[in-house]
Every structure is written in C-alpha cells, then in structure tokens.
Amino acid sequence: MCFSKQSTQVSHLFFFSAFTLSQIHLFFLSNSSKNQRKGKMVDLDWKAKMVSSDMSCTSPKFSNKSRGSLPSPLRFAVSDLSPAPSSACLAYEQFVRLPELSKLWTFNEFPGWKNESILKPALQALEITFRFISVVLSDPRPYVNQREWRRRLESLATHQIDIIAILCEDDVEAAETRGTAPIADLNSSNGVLARNRSSAVWNHPGGTPVVSRTSEASLLPRLATWQKSEDIASKILFSIECEMRRCPFTLGLGEPNLAGKPNLEYDLICKPSDLHSLKKSPSDRRNLDNHENQTLFTTHQILESWIQVSRELLRRIEERIDGQEFGTAASDCWLLERIWKLLTEIEDLHLLMDPDDFLRLKNQLAIKASTESEAFCFRSKALIEITKSSKDLKQRVPAVLGVEVDPKGGPRVQEAAMKLFHGHRKGDFEKIHLVQAFQAIESSLKTFFFSYRQLIGVVMGSLEVKANRALIYADSSDTLSQIFLEHTYFPSLDAAKTFLEDFWHHELGIAGSNGPDRARTKQ
User: Fold this and answer.
1) For the residues 164-181, what does the mean pLDDT come to?
2) What share of the chain has pLDDT > 90, as a percent?
3) Structural domain boundaries of the chain?
4) What Å distances lie between residue 102 and 261, 379, 389, 516, CA to CA?
5) Which residues pair with 211 in a beta bridge?
6) Residue (of 522, 326, 342) closest to 435 by Cα position
7) Which of 220, 224, 307, 355 maximizes the CB count within 10 A of its CB?
8) Dihedral angle at the C-alpha atoms of 20, 24, 25, 31, nearest 10 degrees?
9) In 10 A of CB 7, how many CB atoms?
10) Burial class of residue 260 in the structure, from the number of CB atoms within 10 Å of its CB (0-12 exposed, 13-18 middle, 19+ buried)
11) For this UniProt entry, which segments traverse the membrane (predicted)?
12) pLDDT tens, 28-56?
C-alpha cells in the first residue's frame, strides 16, 4: 500500500494503515471461529476484498462505498484551561461568600461517616433552593415572570432531590458506608422526645419504634404553610417521598413518610441556620436597589455547592478505579454526568432575569470581560478544577482496559476496547458501563460550556461572548467554543466504536447475501 505524504501526517491516535485495519477485522472474524466449528458461514475473504476495493493507494480513508471513516483531527484544542485573573476570581468569591460556604462544606461533624463531604454540600444546595423560592415569590416587581420562575425552581428542586436520593442509596449499598449515616432514633434523645409537632414515634407491630422527625431549621416546612408557596412546597415534599423510597431512611423535611422510616439528621448535617446567615451578599451594603442582585447571588451559591459535590465525587471515582471497583466507579460517573446537566439547568436560571435590571446590575458590579478567558464562569476556580478532572478521566482508560499505552502510537488501547465491547465476557460488564459513563461525562461537560456560551449571548448580548470585540466570526475561536469543539477526550474508545460499527455493517451485508437465517454468536 502507498500513501501520500500529506495523508501520513494524520495524528497517530486516529491513523491506521490498511494492514492494521485488516487485522482489526480479522480479529472480529477470528472471534467467530466458534461459528465456523458449528458450520456457520463466515466470509474470510471479506478482509482482502475490503482492503483491495475500499482502500485507495493514495489515502488511508475508506472509499464512499464504506460507511466507516477515519476521524479527522479538529482544529480546536484547549491545551491549558485556566481561570480568570486572580482579581476577578477574588471578587467573585467575595460576592458569593465562598470562603464562608467552604467552611460549612468541609466541617467534619461525623468522623465515622465517609460520605459526609459529598452529601452535605448537596443538602445545602437544596436548602439554598428553598430560600431561592422565598426570594422569588417575595419579589414585588410586577413585570417578573413568576409563573416560569415557579416551574423552573420546582424542576430544579426535584432534580436535586433525585441526585440526593441516589447518593443516599449508594451510601447504603456500599459495605464501607452502610449504616454510618446519622439517623434520628430514640437513643439520640434517651427515649424522650420534645412535645412539639416536629417529632413523632412510629410503632410497627412486632418491630422497634421509629422516630419520624421534621426539621425545625429548614425553610421547606415553613414554605408549606405560606399561601404563596404552599403548592410548590407540597410538590417538593411528595418528590422527597417518591425519590427516597429505595432508601431505608428519609430526609425528614415534612414529607408524608408513609413507610414510617427513620429520618436523616438533616439539621445537624445541613445546618440551615448557619447557611441562611449567608443569605446576604456583600454588595447588598452598597444599596444597589436591584432585586436581581439577590437572584444572581443565590443562583451562584447553589452552583458552587454542586461544584463542590462534583469535586468530592471525582475524588471518590479516582479511589474506586484505583481499587478496581469498576461497578461503583461507573455508578459515580453516571452521577457526575447528571450533575453536569444540573449545572447547566442552574445556569439557565439567568434566562429569567429581567434584561434591564440585570444589565444595570452588571454595570453596578463592574462585571465585564476584557478577554475571552474572563467569561464569568471562568471566575470559578472550582469549576475549572472539575472540568480538568473530568477531562483527565481519559488517562484512566488504559488501566480500566488492562493494557498499557503503546509508546510507538500503535492501536493497543483501541484493540482492547474493541475486545471489551464485542466480547461481552462475564466480568467485563462493569468495565463497559464505566467507559460508557466516561464518554457521557464528556458529552454533558461540553454541553454545559456550549449552553453557557449561548446563555451569555442571550442575557448579555453577543458582543460579550467575544469579550466586546467588534467582529464576531461564524468560525468562532473563543475559549467556550473551543471546549465544545475540541476533539473527543477518548479517541481510542471513539475509534473502537467506529471500526466496530463498520465491522457489523460488512458482517450483516455478508449475512444478507448468504441468507436471512444466518446465525451468529459472540465470544
């Protein structure tokens, strides 16, 4: 085979000669040797036919006859994603009161509970959402879209409860954390309960009494008694009841608790009183007279809380992969994918802010991007950190597949991925789930930044996207676009699926030519 000089400059991660390609298909066909022993028809000459008919002597790509094609390298690449200048990051952290929030997230109240660092900021984000509901429904401006705000905040609360329920389920299923979550029981009060409406005892026939306790510090029970928020609170309470049905305990926020399950020590974990003491931004002291200030402030407190959950979750993913716990690592990765989608939903709340009030606030707070790297989201150092950590999961692929990267650039990792996908061997299922979750995280991460770019254009105007440059090109090269457009983080997995799809296209074509009843089995 001969190739032009220009063609041979394709990145070694995506280039495969015709000889290597034929070996790939021979690998799949060799896996069908069991079919041959059983008398099944396998066209062993297909490999040679493909190389001779579908490969040109001047190009490493398939001809138009083949559905498969070699991925071409994209121009966009983000080599080193960095936060905005330190002064901008510091101003953002002070605006959100991030140092005080961080103390609440990281304070270790229960040393024996390993998952406290993950579940605590998640519960605190939910509690801040309850405060957000109160802020929105108390807004006196007649031109605010109250109906859509109610729907968005209901949806946001429900999705957070869904993720919290999954975290609680995983906490119970893992042997190392089972039974370590702090739950209210009779022993915690020496068998005596305060005589108020926040506590009750469920007596099961033949079982031990269970304490059903409603949080005294959370805002949700209060929202349930306020006429403006009664319907939202009711929906949230029933969402808690439904989502926590698989857990042996519930949150204890006033949900029906029809199963009579014990309650999580919500007030001790979340500390709602301490959390709500941070409800005012330092910018409030400037008497801005702008209701969108509280909206912006609260939105980003929720965002940063979930970013903290992601940081802790990524650490646990690394630990579980190192420990060869691929099943639980896969579960955490799918959860991380959900959180990236949740971050997008949180950012989209900016769409409901009044244009005039928000743009006035933007100038009051002197929020302005002078370079592309100063997009408001890049002022969050933690967001940059979880972005890099999510991308760095690509370095874990060889270890999951049980191979080492070929220093000469050979397709060793790709071939291992194809064996994994095609073989379906017992014991490999969890690995398939894990690498699939890796790619799902990539998709949701890129979607977040693309959505954020669109959001800036809608909320602040298109000039803000390009840092107030006068010219905006259709072929954009701003950092947000580069993140979305850069090549896949998992080229070996991508290439493996490309060739696997092509294998089945030709295999099924051969099967059709030999009769519709031709059977195949997988090794």
Assistant:
1) 82
2) 49
3) 15-73+493-513
4) 31, 16, 19, 63
5) 201
6) 326
7) 220
8) 150
9) 15
10) middle
11) none
12) 555 544 444 443 333 333 333 333 333 33
